[in-house]
Amino acid sequence: MTTIYEFAVVEGQEWVLPVDDSYFEVFFSLDGTPLGSWEPPVMQRVSDGDPVYSDFPWLGEHVPLLRKPAVDALAASLAPYGELIPLRGEKVWLFNVTNVIDALDRERSEIVYFDDGDILAIERYAFDADKIGTAEVFKLPMRASPVFVNDMFVGRVRTAVLRTVSFKPRWTSDGSLRD
What we know:
Elements: E1 3-8, E2 16-18, H1 23-28, E3 42-45, E4 65-66, H2 68-78, E5 82-86, E6 88-89, E7 93-97, E8 110-113, E9 119-124, H3 129-132, E10 137-139, E11 147-150, H4 151-159, E12 166-172
Parallel strand pairs: 3-6
Antiparallel strand pairs: 1-11, 1-12, 2-3, 4-7, 5-7, 8-9, 10-11
């Protein structure tokens, strides 16, 4: 059985956000295209209260950010699925997922649509396991797709003993997962 997960935020986990709010749109629009000579934004740690340190500080499930321990532990495993890009300011790397797989099973997923047919939200995911194959990391071909990872990747994170990293199971190949 395979389980597909997305990154999840932990209560109290530190957040790292762009200093310039216009970069939120840039992060939402990452579509799997390599960034090439992109000028990375300046990032800052949000300091409300006393946030819990994370090797994957939170920006959103669609844009994983990594600190140096995570980069050191996972760079080789991540390389086939995207690019690690150092950001400015706070010492974090963006993992730009370039492995885009059209693996969403629309018939078995629970999807809320806009009137024009575009997807508003996906309440329950179902995937075509054959399309995913052995990919450890991927995203869907849709705006602000979460980054999805499989059991193998979650195991790599756990083995590396990275701090304050959480995953939410979204789908199992045997259909046993229910929200």
